[in-house]
Structure formats: structure tokens, C-alpha cells
């Protein structure tokens, strides 16, 4: 090397961003999504989290009968086999995503939600990419999910397919349900 660092490798004013954050910022900038907060582990003492998850459950109420709704309650998200992350924008909670271990190496994507006011800004894509990268780094070899078949869930299904999820039969404790669609993802050499 000639002693000169490329612009992207130079420290930014005010110091270098935490590991991984600078890479995410560059990806966001290339996608034109803008930068919205940092993804962190959930603070279960934050009252905004309970309200956000209650809104998540309320969003699903008109889409399917109760037996076809599988979102985890706040207490279930506290379980030791569940990892829940949040994303804030100017102090407001705008997104959540969780991974729940089903079996060693197999996890389920849960509580994937973006606040309605920020939908279409790449928040869901960012949360999903983060969760997939976390799983891959921990050696998870399969992630599955259940989502609705109704039009309300069409953007979510498109997002999952765009990230390499493919349709699969019911998994874990799920039974065949006409209101549910099941997907699975196996990390490959080019996946997040």
C-alpha cells in the first residue's frame, strides 16, 4: 500500500463509528434510505416497547381469527431463547425484530414490525438484514417464519422473498392453516 487510506477507511470527524455501524451506514446511503438510529437489544423496561407490540397485535386482529395469529406477547419475548431488537428514530420506536430458537441451529423470525409512519423507508429491510447477519454470525443454519396470506402481509412476503426466503411446509408447532404462509431461509455464500 502507498500509505494513503481510501476515503471510506479514514476515521470520520468525531472518531470512528462502532464496528458494523459504518458498514450499515454505507449500505443505507447507497440505497438512499437515509440513516435512522441504531439497532439495539430491546429494553423491556421501555413503556414504548409494550405500546409498540400492542399496536402490532392490534394490526393483526382484523386479518385472521385468533387461532391464526401467532405474534408473541411481551412476556414471551423475554424468554431466554428469544433475542429481540429495536430501532429508534429521534427517540421514537420505529421497528422490532426477534429471533426465537426452535432447535439448535434453527430459529424463527418473530415480531417483525415497522411503525406505519416510516413504512417504505427501508426500515424492515434493515431489521431483517440485521437479524439474518446476527443468525449467520452465530452459526444458525436455518430461519423459518410464519406470516399471513392476506393482502395486509403482501409487503412482508415480498421482503422475505427478496432476502432469499422460500415457501415451506408448516414447521415447529405450526399446523397447516389457510390463513398462514410459511417460509424458510438457509444462509448461502451470497446471503446476508
UniProtKB/TrEMBL annotation:
| Domain N-acetyltransferase stretches | 39-189
- Answer whether the UniProt record assigns the keyword Acyltransferase to this protein: yes
Residue ranges with Basic residues bias: 1-15
UniProt cross-references to SUPFAM superfamilies, sorted A to Z: Acyl-CoA N-acyltransferases (Nat)
**Organism of this sequence:** Tsukamurella conjunctivitidis
Please give the residue ranges the record annotates as the region Disordered: 1-36
Electron transport: is it a keyword of this entry? no
Cross-referenced Gene3D superfamilies: 3.40.630.30
Q: Which UniProt keywords apply?
A: Acyltransferase, Transferase
Q: Which InterPro entries match?
A: Acyl_CoA_acyltransferase, Bact_Acetyltransf, GNAT_dom
What does the record give under GO molecular function?
A: acyltransferase activity, transferring groups other than amino-acyl groups
Superkingdom of origin organism:
Bacteria
Q: Where is the composition biased (Basic and acidic residues)?
A: 22-32
| Record PROSITE patterns | GNAT
- What name goes with this protein? GNAT family N-acetyltransferase
Amino acid at each position: 500500500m502507498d500509505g494513503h487510506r481510501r476515503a471510506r477507511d479514514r476515521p470520520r470527524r468525531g472518531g470512528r463509528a462502532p464496528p458494523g455501524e459504518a458498514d450499515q451506514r454505507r449500505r443505507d446511503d447507497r440505497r438512499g434510505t437515509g440513516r435512522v438510529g441504531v439497532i439495539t437489544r430491546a429494553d423491556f423496561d421501555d413503556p414504548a416497547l409494550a405500546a409498540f407490540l400492542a399496536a402490532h397485535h392490534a394490526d393483526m386482529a382484523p386479518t385472521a381469527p385468533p387461532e391464526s395469529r401467532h405474534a408473541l406477547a411481551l412476556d414471551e419475548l423475554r424468554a431466554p431463547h428469544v433475542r429481540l431488537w429495536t430501532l429508534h428514530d429521534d427517540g421514537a420506536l420505529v421497528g422490532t425484530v426477534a429471533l426465537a430458537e426452535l432447535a439448535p441451529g434453527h430459529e424463527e423470525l418473530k415480531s417483525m414490525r415497522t411503525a406505519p409512519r416510516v413504512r417504505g423507508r427501508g426500515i424492515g429491510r434493515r431489521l431483517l438484514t440485521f437479524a439474518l447477519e446476527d443468525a449467520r454470525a452465530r452459526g444458525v443454519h436455518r430461519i423459518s417464519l410464519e406470516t399471513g396470506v392476506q393482502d395486509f402481509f403482501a409487503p412482508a412476503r415480498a421482503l422475505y422473498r427478496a432476502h432469499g426466503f422460500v415457501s415451506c411446509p408448516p414447521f415447529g408447532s405450526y399446523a397447516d392453516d389457510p390463513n398462514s404462509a410459511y417460509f424458510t431461509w438457509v444462509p448461502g455464500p451470497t446471503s446476508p
